[in-house]
Amino acid sequence: MSRIAEAFARLRAERRAALVPFVTAGDPSPGHTVAMLRALVAGGADVIELGVPFSDPMADGPTIQRSSERALRAGMGLAGVLDAVSAFRREDSRTPVVLMGYANPIERMGAAAFASRAAQAGVDGVLVVDYPPEESGDWASVLAAAGIDPIFLLSPTSSEARIELVSRLASGYIYYVSLKGVTGAAHIDAADVERMLGRIRARTDVPVGVGFGIRDPQTARAIARFADAVVIGSRIVEEIERADPAQAADRAGALLAQFRAGIDAAAGDRAAA
């Protein structure tokens, strides 16, 4: 059983949703990345999404775009991200790490070479925003052969055909984008999200995580009542951006602990459902 599957099985038995923070590798600097991952685990992360910095992150709002710019200026690239995961694995063999990013860095390395190096580093899943599922059968097979979960996005505008396709291709979990727009947007409607998750779950047993627009523990609790995972990204990256680099990891971990408390407070709601 993979680390991601183990995490979701454990949380399912505890009737709790997974807490999945996102940070950009190399932000505030490459040298802080492993400490950042460590702090997120201390703050309650069940799975970590680690962004691969890219110059044109089309699905990301200004906050995460700036984090990529900071990381790129500091010299962080895909090889450095994999090195950071390797270093993290030397002290943490349990917490799943999912790389999230865009096609260009992977295409430059080569899909097969990337999958091999990612597996050796201890990566558990990969989500490539601009690999459409309709064209990703071979990509999913390359990852699966390396023991890595291919993770795909669904959104409020996803057709029934795309939901069906992603349900067949995805493993680990499916990332449901709760809003139309880029990361950091607001005005999430929990009832709409719950209805959409019902449509997805009618086709798959793969866990479904919800991200985009979750900016406070109260909203995280509302989503955790029915989602398998709650993804927190822009709010954590904002905290990193505001902090002195030497304090960024501690501040990110402390903020994440507040979301952990909100999500855990939903355990009773899930048990009663």
Strands, helices and their partners?
Layout: H1 3-14, E1 18-24, H2 33-42, E2 48-51, H3 62-73, H4 78-89, E3 97-101, H5 103-109, H6 111-121, E4 125-128, H7 137-145, E5 149-151, E6 153-154, H8 160-169, E7 174-177, H9 190-201, E8 208-211, H10 217-224, E9 229-232, H11 234-242, H12 245-265, H13 267-272
Parallel strand pairs: 1-2, 1-9, 2-3, 3-4, 4-5, 6-7, 7-8, 8-9
Helix pairs in contact: 2-4, 2-12, 4-6, 5-6, 10-12, 11-12
Q: Given this structure, which CATH class is correct?
A: Alpha Beta
The CATH topology label is TIM Barrel
**CATH homologous superfamily caption:** Aldolase class I
The number of helices is: 13
Q: What count of structural domains?
A: 1
Based on helices, strands and strand pairing, what is the structural class?
alpha/beta
Portion of residues within helices: 40-55%
Please summarize the sheet with the most strands: 9 strands, parallel
Number of strands: 9
- Spatial shape: globular
Please state how the strands of the largest beta sheet are arranged side by side: 5-4-3-2-1-9-8-7-6
User: What is the rounded distance between the termini?
Assistant: 28 Å
By CATH, the architecture is named Alpha-Beta Barrel
Strand content: 5-15%
Mean pLDDT: 94
Poorly predicted spans: 181-185
Radius of gyration computed on alpha carbons: 17 Å
